[in-house]
């Protein structure tokens, strides 16, 4: 129970830090002051800084004994959201807000660094503290990996934590396997032939072609995909046509796909292209299909999840750990999982009495700060248990 006792001791310090970061939010890849502040705090704690780039920073703590390397990750960016909570520590930056709770992640990981520093002689191995920028645009994890976050020393296992207003305060949500969706974006450009609206047979109608494509794409999820593995194809925009009496010569459709498995993720663009190609042929149109793989599904490794579950049970008791209802939204922590085993867990922060019940990214979003100590202790306990077992 030592980690929780220490976390409780640092509780006010962690809440202070969270409120500071909350007041000065910075958007993705603009986390300059945040990075500077994290570095200063890490130095004060006694954590060595080994990796730093324009934004984001990595701290390292070597334990008293040789051993494996565990990484703990916190994302640090905020959103372009205007805060309306009215709390005393509201954002001082107009139009920018920590509306996803990443301010809490920074404070909790700094708290965990304090706890683990305090216990360092007892640690068998090394802890890496990864403060990652730009999660909200799903580019930060990739950026940190490209900058060597998982090397020197090589990471054996990585853990992340996300504060979660969809679960009651005091609970931790831990689930192995696929828990969050992938997120990939695409654009279809259709090129037909414009002509007078009274003589459509003389042209190629890109607009009607696009409409047919949309209709067919909407049947993939129910008719062509194994429905036991849910997918979402969201058609977000269509732009076509100039005037009511002109046949549209061009059309552009954009959208985003979500899947829970890599198999569906890789197959979707192939199925889509088959449809696009055939319908374009019928309409005598040409097409260009651009597909960008952005974020893979978040799949928690079974063994890493078990270690996390046992560790968190030491902090809050097994009765306070719940399973997770899958979320179709994405989390770029999945990038790390491509290279090393690991898991991300979710810390319940919903509290009706404290009005902490708004969804993430809402301008009324807030969390029950009393749970931060659970996050701090859990981060630390997971690292200890992974290294010392
Ligand atoms: Zn978010
Ligand atoms: Zn988030």
From TrEMBL:
<feature type="domain" description="Peptidase M20 dimerisation">
    <location>
        <begin position="186"/>
        <end position="282"/>
    </location>
</feature>
<dbReference type="Pfam" id="PF07687">
    <property type="entry name" value="M20_dimer"/>
</dbReference>
<dbReference type="InterPro" id="IPR002933">
    <property type="entry name" value="Peptidase_M20"/>
</dbReference>
<dbReference type="InterPro" id="IPR011650">
    <property type="entry name" value="Peptidase_M20_dimer"/>
</dbReference>
<dbReference type="Pfam" id="PF01546">
    <property type="entry name" value="Peptidase_M20"/>
</dbReference>
<protein>
    <submittedName>
        <fullName>M20 family metallopeptidase</fullName>
    </submittedName>
</protein>
<dbReference type="InterPro" id="IPR017439">
    <property type="entry name" value="Amidohydrolase"/>
</dbReference>
<dbReference type="InterPro" id="IPR036264">
    <property type="entry name" value="Bact_exopeptidase_dim_dom"/>
</dbReference>
């Amino acid at each position: 129970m030592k980690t929780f006792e220490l976390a409780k001791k640092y509780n006010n310090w962690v809440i202070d830090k969270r409120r500071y970061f909350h007041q000065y939010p910075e958007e993705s890849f603009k986390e300059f002051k945040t990075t500077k502040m994290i570095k200063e705090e890490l130095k004060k704690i006694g954590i060595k800084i080994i990796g730093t780039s324009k934004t984001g920073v990595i701290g390292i703590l070597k334990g008293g004994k040789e051993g494996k390397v565990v990484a703990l990750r916190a994302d640090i960016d905020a959103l372009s959201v205007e805060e309306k909570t009215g709390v005393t520590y509201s954002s001082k930056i107009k139009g920018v807000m920590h509306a996803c709770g990443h301010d809490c992640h920074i404070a909790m990981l700094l708290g965990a660094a304090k706890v683990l520093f305090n216990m360092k002689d007892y640690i068998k191995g090394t802890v890496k503290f990864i403060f990652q920028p730009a999660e909200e645009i799903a580019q930060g994890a990739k950026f940190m990996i490209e900058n060597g976050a998982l090397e020197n020393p090589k990471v054996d296992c990585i853990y992340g934590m996300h504060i979660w207003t969809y679960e009651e305060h005091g609970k931790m949500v831990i689930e192995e396997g696929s828990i969050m969706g992938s997120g990939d974006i695409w654009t279809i450009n259709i090129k037909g032939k414009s002509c007078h609206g009274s003589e459509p047979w003389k042209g190629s109608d890109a607009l009607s072609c696009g409409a047919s494509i949309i209709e067919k794409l909407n049947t993939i999820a129910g008719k062509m995909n194994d429905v036991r593995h849910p997918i979402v194809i969201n058609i977000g925009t269509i732009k076509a046509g100039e005037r009511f009496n002109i046949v549209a010569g061009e059309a552009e459709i954009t959208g985003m796909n979500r899947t829970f498995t890599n198999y569906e993720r890789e197959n979707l663009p192939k199925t889509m292209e088959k449809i696009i190609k055939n319908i374009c042929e019928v309409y005598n149109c040409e097409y260009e299909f651009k597909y960008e793989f952005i974020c893979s599904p978040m799949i928690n490794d079974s063994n890493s999840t078990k270690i996390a579950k046992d560790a968190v049970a030491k902090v809050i008791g097994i009765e306070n750990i719940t399973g997770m209802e899958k979320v179709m939204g994405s989390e770029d922590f999945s990038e790390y999982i491509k290279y090393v085993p690991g898991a991300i867990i979710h810390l319940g922060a919903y509290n009706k009495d404290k009005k902490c019940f708004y969804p993430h990214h809402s301008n009324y979003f807030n969390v029950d700060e009393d749970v931060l100590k659970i996050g701090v202790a859990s981060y630390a306990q997971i690292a200890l248990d992974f290294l010392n077992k």
